[in-house]
UniProtKB/TrEMBL annotation:
Gene3D superfamilies: Glutaredoxin. It comes from Arenimonas caeni. Glutathione binds at K21, R59, F71, C84, D85. This is Glutaredoxin. [2Fe-2S] cluster binds at C29. SUPFAM superfamilies: Thioredoxin-like (SSF52833). Residues 16-81 form the Glutaredoxin domain. The lineage of its organism: Bacteria, Pseudomonadati, Pseudomonadota, Gammaproteobacteria, Lysobacterales. It comes from the Bacteria. The gene is grxD. PANTHER family: GLUTAREDOXIN FAMILY MEMBER (PTHR10293), MONOTHIOL GLUTAREDOXIN-S14, CHLOROPLASTIC (PTHR10293:SF72).
Length: 107
C-alpha cells in the first residue's frame, strides 16, 4: 500500500483524525499541543491521532495529500479542517464543538 493510500485510509477510516507531532498526551510542539487541547475543549473523545514524528513517510507526504504545508492537520469526516490556528479559531467561535459533536454521533 502506498503512503498516499495509507493516509487516505486513516483519514477516511476515522471520523476525527489529528496528524500531529507527538501524541495528545505528550505533544512534541506547541502547535500540536494547542490543537489537541482545542479538540479536548470541544468535547472530542477518542479521536484518532497520528504521530508524524514516528512515521517519516506520512510526515513527508501528508502536505502533498492535503495541500497544507504544516503540522498539525485536523481532518473531520475525511475533510481537511486546517492547522492549529484554524482549529483554535473554530473552538473560540463555538463551531468546533458543533463539528465534533456531529462527527461523534453514533451511526
Amino acid at each position: 500500500m502506498s503512503v498516499m493510500d495509507r493516509i487516505k485510509a486513516e483519514v477516511e477510516g476515522h471520523p476525527i483524525v489529528l496528524f500531529m507531532k507527538g501524541t495528545p498526551q505528550f505533544p512534541m510542539c506547541g502547535f500540536s499541543s494547542r490543537a489537541a487541547q482545542a479538540l479536548k475543549a470541544a468535547g472530542a473523545t477518542g479521536y484518532h491521532s497520528i504521530n508524524v514524528l514516528e512515521d517519516p513517510e506520512i510526515r513527508a507526504n501528508l502536505p502533498r495529500y492535503s495541500d497544507w504545508p504544516t503540522f498539525p492537520q485536523l481532518f473531520i469526516h475525511g475533510e481537511l479542517i486546517g492547522g492549529c490556528d484554524i482549529t483554535v479559531d473554530l473552538l473560540e467561535s463555538g463551531e468546533l464543538a458543533r463539528i465534533v459533536a456531529e462527527a461523534q454521533k453514533p451511526a
